[in-house]
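Bug #77: duplicate submission created two jobs. Keeping one. Sequence:
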Amino acid sequence: MQLVAKTMSCDKAIKEKGYKLTPQRRLILDVFHASKTHLTGEELVNQIQARAPGVNKSTVYRTLDLPESLELAAKSELEGRFVYHHGESAHHHHFVCRGCGKIVDCDETILLPLEKTLVEKFDFEPDFKHLMICGLCGACIRDR
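Kept job's structure:
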């Protein structure tokens, strides 16, 4: 049921902004909704072409512009490459192991003390909508 709600929410957001829900946009949103993880551009292209073999790689990248601008999809840089995921309205944070590539979701409350410090000490209000913190997981630390 949650997948259907996300799909309907994205459809509604696109239409409310006066855009058409083209077949390419629908494919991209469907892949994001079905994915449990971040996707590289190549993985995204491969999944879309598996569903619709005639879709060109450049079409996928061009079509991503609208969902990104409406925050329905998010793009982040991770170790020199871009990864994409569904753009949840809630904050979305991860710890990323640079050793094995493991990605661990992080609750936003862990950043509250940092946010408070930035506001109080530096008069700076951070935008922690999507944050990736790179480091080493416990297994990779033990394997060093």
